[in-house]
Amino acid sequence: MTLHKLSAHDVIDLFKKKKVTAYEIIQDIYDRIDKVDGLVKAFLILNREDAFKQAKEIDIKFKNGEEPLPLAGIAVAIKDIIATKKIETTCGSKILKGFRPPYNATVIDKLREAGAIIIGKTNMDEFAMGSSTENSAFGPTKNPWDLERVPGGSSGGSAAAVAADEAFIALGTDTGGSVRQPASFCGVVGLKPTYGRVSRYGLIAYASSLDQIGPITKDVVDCALTMNIIAGHDNKDSTSADLEVPDYLSSCQEGIENIKIGVPKEYFVKGIDIEVKDAINKALRVFEELGAKIEEVSLPHTEYSLPTYYLIATAEASSNLARYDGVQYGYRVEDCKDLSSMYERTRSEGFGKEVKRRIMLGTYALSSGYYDAYYLKAQKVRTLIREDFSKAFNKYDILVTPTSPTPAFKLNEKIADPLTMYLSDIYTIPVNLAGIPAISLNCGYNKNNLPIGLQIIGKPFKEETILRVAYNFEQNCEIEKRRPEISSIKDKENAE
Amino acid sequence: MSEEIVIGLEVHIQLMTKSKIFCQCSTDYIGKKPNTNVCPVCLGLPGSLPVLNKKVLEFAIRTALALNCKINRASIFHRKNYFYPDLPKAYQISQYDSPLGVNGYMEIFIPESDEKRKIGITRVHIEEDAGKLIHEGDIATSSYSLVDYNRCGIPLAEIVTEPELRSPEEARIFLIKLRNLVQHLEVCDGNMEEGSLRCDANVSVRDIQTGNLGTKTEIKNMNSFRAVKKALQFEVDRQKELLAEGVKIVQETRHWDESKNITLSMRSKEEAHDYRYFPEPDLLPLRVSQEMIEEVRKTLPELPEVRKERFIKIYNIPEYDAEILTSSKALGDYYEKAASLYPDKKVVSNWIMGELMRFLKEEKIEIEDSPISPENLIEMLKLMDERIISGKMAKDIFETMFKTGKGARQIIKESGVTQITDENELIKIVDKIIKENPKSVEDFNQGKEKAINYLVGQVMRSTKGRAKPDFVFEAIKQRMKKIR
Asked: What does the pLDDT look like over A85-136, one tens digit per residue?
């Protein structure tokens, strides 16, 4: 059986028709993981025993006549920054090696109640700081489309796992593009919900005012399906919005005639890959044919997004990551002469380069004498960026942009040059600063057979609109459905 | 140079809500096994998030209102960042530039100068408490330390005064009054020894001629009212001496060492933390509606000042008595209970302020734990009225009551000590005493009426207080007149 190639909603249909059991689904997924993950390296840890146990329980309940759960038997991969009870949760960092949270994140409880099976934890840039998954303390994940390339990041493991058919659904987190950019690099669907739409309880914080959990899936319907489960208010997260959650699946079914699309001109200037630009333009024609109205729009403060992000996110990170001090859990250097040397050495040895870089940057931005010039100024600019979007949304229903200026780049290509690396999130970061929702989905391939991502940005708490637009595009774009051919570098060399 | 002492206080009170400030753990942490009164939130485990306990807000508003503060309709939580093992997130959720309450005051009375003074309250804000470190042996030499997180997340209100206290004694008076207030408000039990009320102070000395403020030092670790006064006095003297010698005061944090009776430097300004405050992104700005403020105002209990006036009015006792009896909530409650059971309110007040408070002070017992209940005190007073015991006996019985916790009736029954009611027997004793004290008789005959008192005392002594004093007095008087 090749269940792993199917979408989640197709597998659920088979399960409901009693054509497959949850056990068979999980068996097939682990077979697939065993076959390809040695090359892709999407997973940090597998939850095999527990997953099979759960699958059996689901099968028994279904056999006994219970209603099938909405995600019954669906194998879900979880980014290793989301707390899973008793399952090691490292954030891709040496400093949390061996840490097993005594509790589940709210999204994990919700997924499990919906019948989903957590099959393992996926690789990521350490503490979600990075755009290539090369910053993982446990080695990089490879892009299934080209194993010499990065899968994007920081949710690279989650995107690669879905692209390589190692999971039907994965959860990622998106602080500056960490769901959408890897989704675009891996040719899958990734949604960053509105800030406050999905509970952050159990999401290990990088930048609290920007972080959101989002699904990474094979198609838009699976994305809507997952959002139906994970969205909603949570008493345990004060910043989660107490708003009604619509049925995202049914909203996909409507058309997009007369929808007004804004295309921000600042997103098509220097640095954009010509093939990416062409792919977006083609996509815009598809929208036009579907009856949408398209106009150019200006988001004048776009150029300040990156510096604003790197002040706010790092400032929050410097505080959020201060708790990794070797006292309570995780890594601690032995044989310290005193408390300050324990702190210093534990944190020097426990954190990777990029994390330390951002902690230092953020600490500086918050320091007395610099706070007003950096952190406070950045907050003011953030307001301006947010206003850019709200003005645009007075006129347009959605905005369409590329997800990233280029398709997947090569491993080690940008790792030595942080500023170049940071630029790969230039189209996604403003969305986090504004706290609004955006989805990335495939809109074609470049000449090297690498996927290109299209970003659809929506109004706050209007995920149903961007899902509807994305679904209409997916159904009508007439882009050939390709799948990555996962072959080892060695195989490739042999072929040449 | 003539100087003026400038003291400002920072007082932390633990708010007596049922659960902690940001999670559902109990606030009843004292005496619990280390690290059992915790959850992912108060342990600051990765991924956990704070959710404000609404009761904490209510208690803090209550405190701020009682201190005549203006309540900010919108205030913000900030993170105060610093590394210490008792702080599991490495930041404390606190309030910074927009606290809950501002611009209040509390009036205190200074007996020394017989004046009332209004001490400004700069701010009242909400924050979380940290855990506790337990060092193996002494802090300086211990080879390891253990952390107990049970106290993490206990809600605190921080009350900051203007630098308007002019002596260590004023600081002590302010603090006692503040404790009394928060006890009346039922927001804090005010126990300094257990740390539910903690006080730091900023101290400096101002040159009156130039009006220039001196450099201030911050004094920490004062764990009792007495310690506050002693530590501040030490610090004031230290600063004055240095200034007299022309030495500059260093801005620093100093630690009160109770065993050595000195303050010691902890860290200088250069070593001071940069707390890198910034708005807490995990909590929404705190919005307090006018309705909520009014709602809380309605639930404010009777405050000590008002209670004092009521005592004067309805119990008809002197202001002095009322002041003392309302100086703590528990004492006021004790008095009211006792007074409700006895017609003469002043007698009740005398016994409480006299004997009871003397014994409590000697034995270092709080009024809440008084071995003599208000009911027992009144039972004893009634036995006196019924002349079953004399005033002198009452004092002895009171002592036994205090030591054993038993009632007066029971003590009398057990010891067989009752008043001698047989008048013939008493007269025999009177005669004997008169015979034995010819000097007193002579004095009396020469017009010294007071000599009778001495003889009465002798009778009481020989009967171990079991005689009825007024009967004895009358008996002696009559006999003496006969003799004369």
From this structure: 999 999 999 999 999 999 999 999 999 999 999 999 999 999 999 999 999 9
Minimal Cα distance from B87: which residue of A? A323
d(CA B484, CA B476): 12
Quote the number of domains for chain A.
Answer: 1
Secondary-structure class of domain B423-483 per CATH = mainly alpha
Q: For position B253, what pLDDT does the model report?
A: 92
Tell me the β-bridge partners of A230: none
Q: Which residues pair with B199 in a beta bridge?
A: B11, B222
Q: 């002469």: which residue's tokens?
A: A337
Nearest CA-CA distance, residue A335 and chain B, Å: 11
Rounded-to-integer distance, Cα A228 and Cα A214, Å: 12
B31 touching A (Cβ < 8 Å)? no
Residue whose C-alpha is closest to residue A395's, from A305, A295, A285, A470: A295
- Range(s) of the domain holding residue A154: 3-260+458-495
Render A352-396 in DSSP notation, one character per residue: -HHHHHHHHHHHHHHSTTTTIIIIIHHHHHHHHHHHHHHHHHHH-
Residue A434 maps to a domain: no
Tokens of B233: 């006095």
- CA-nearest of A52, A108, A114 to A80 is A108
Best B21, B92, B282, B283 member to test A by mutation, with max A CBs in 10 Å, is: B282
Q: Which of B39, B41, B45, B143 to mutate to test the interface with A (most CBs of A within 10 A)?
A: B45
DSSP codes, A68-118? PPTTTT-EEEEETTB-BTTB---TT-GGGTT---SS--HHHHHHHHTT-EE
Specify the 3-state DSSP secondary structure of B180. helix
Judge whether A228 and A70 are in contact, CB under 8 Å. yes
- pLDDT of A494 > 70? The answer is no
Q: What is the ipTM of this complex?
A: 0.95
For residue range A378-399, list pLDDT tens digits in order: 999 999 999 999 999 999 999 9
Closest CA to A419 of A356, A481, A362, A354: A354
Would you state the structure tokens that stand for residue B309, as one six-digit string? 């006036």
Phi, psi dihedrals of residue B446, rounded to the nearest 5°: -85, 10
Say yes or no: B88 contacts chain A, CB-CB below 8 A.
yes
Question: Tell me: the pLDDT tens digits for B71-108?
Answer: 999 999 999 999 999 999 999 999 999 999 999 999 99
Query: Closest Cα partner for A456 from A472, A440, A435, A434?
Result: A440
B357 at the A interface (CB within 8 A)?
Answer: no
B144 shares contact with chain A (CB less than 8 Å): no
Is residue A409 included in any domain, yes or no? no
Mean pLDDT of A73-82: 98
Indicate whether A97 belongs to any domain.
yes
- What number is the average pLDDT over the span B1-22? 94
Distance CA(A132)–CA(A147), nearest Å, equals 13
Catalytic residues of A: 79, 154, 178
Whether the predicted pLDDT of A496 surpasses 50:
no
- Give the H/E segment covering residue A348: helix A339-350
How far lies A454's CA from each of A21, A183, A187, in Å?
Answer: 35, 10, 10
Count, residues in chain A: 496
State yes or no: pLDDT of B164 exceeds 80: yes
Asked if B52 and A208 come within 8 Å (Cβ–Cβ), the reply is: no
Whether A322 and B282 lie within 8 Å, measured CB to CB: no
CATH of the domain at A118: 3.90.1300.10
Q: What is the pTM of this model?
A: 0.88
Interface test mutation site (partner A, options B22, B24, B38, B49, max chain A beta carbons within 10 A): B49
Taking contacts as CB-CB distances below 8 angstroms, the residues of chain B near A208 are: 281-282
- How far does the CA of residue B291 sit from the closest CA of chain A (Å)? 22
B48 at A interface, C-beta within 8 A: yes
Residue type for position B196: S
